[in-house]
Amino acid sequence: MACGHPQMEFQVFNQLEKIGARPDVFGAYTAADLWTDPHISEQMLGYHLNGDVASASRTTAFIGDSLNWLAAYLDIGPRTGVLDLGCGPGLYTNPLAMLGAQVVGVDFSKRSLHHARSAAPKEGAPPTYIHGNYLDVDIPGTFDLVLMAMCDYCALSPSQRRTLLDRVSSLLRPDGRFVFDVYGLASMRGREETVIYAPELMDGFWSAELYHGFHHTFVYERERVILDRYEIVEATRSRTIYNWLQHFDSSSIEQELNASDFEVIALFGDLTGANLIPDPSEFCVVAGPM
Ligand SMILES: C[S@@+](CC[C@H](N)C(=O)[O-])C[C@H]1O[C@@H](n2cnc3c(N)ncnc32)[C@H](O)[C@@H]1O
User: What is the pTM for the complete model shown?
Assistant: First the structure.
């Protein structure tokens, strides 16, 4: 049997050890790389705008039901102030503006915001779109509704969620509502620690160049967190993308909200106002200042 160069084998071994190492929970935050990379954001926008799949955004039918429910439940109309955190290509913001609401959307994907602006209603008051990280970008005004759709809350670490809740608290009017959806414990069950290697992992999703991709899934049972981590190795660069998913039950989200001076006003099965089922895989939270 032929032997390779021992030094090179050692380097490959070390590299693979690094790629496979289990990180500390919420040890790195790379959401911007996922959403703002020119190639990946183009794929993401395609998923957002494909109304048949619930991938980057939910399906067109779901979003329609969701808008109808939000409008009725929160009596959204002229002069309602709405802030959509992580608004993406404006699938909620633009229709809400057509109801006459005064809408602000925040996102750090320039590509999505470009689409949102180009699809904004031409009559009435189009939404104001702010480019930046919703954890720290300047957001003028106060709002009756702060919306965060598609479980983005779960991508944040506990300390980022505290920062977010402090921000939302300062942006909400006294009777305002923070409405968001989260992953339930059922969606964690059955997830196993796995690793997948493939050249052009996910059919070229990660780069227009040739690459090798490693997808590790790590399960943090005690913390109720799943990490999907992608290592993308190209000829001239390599990147690590961390996709963290915090899971909640009704008491853990309530505790977390109470600790930031929010109370749970209601829990629903999803963002269309469906009834909450026992042990859900996702659910919707309506919270207000204490
Ligand atoms: C799962 S998508 C949901 C988009 C939209 N809410 C919807 O349901 O159609 C999450 C969005 O949040 C944005 N995003 C994620 N983290 C962000 C951050 N820290 N600051 C600003 N935008 C962020 C992404 O660019 C993306 O558009």
Answer: 0.96
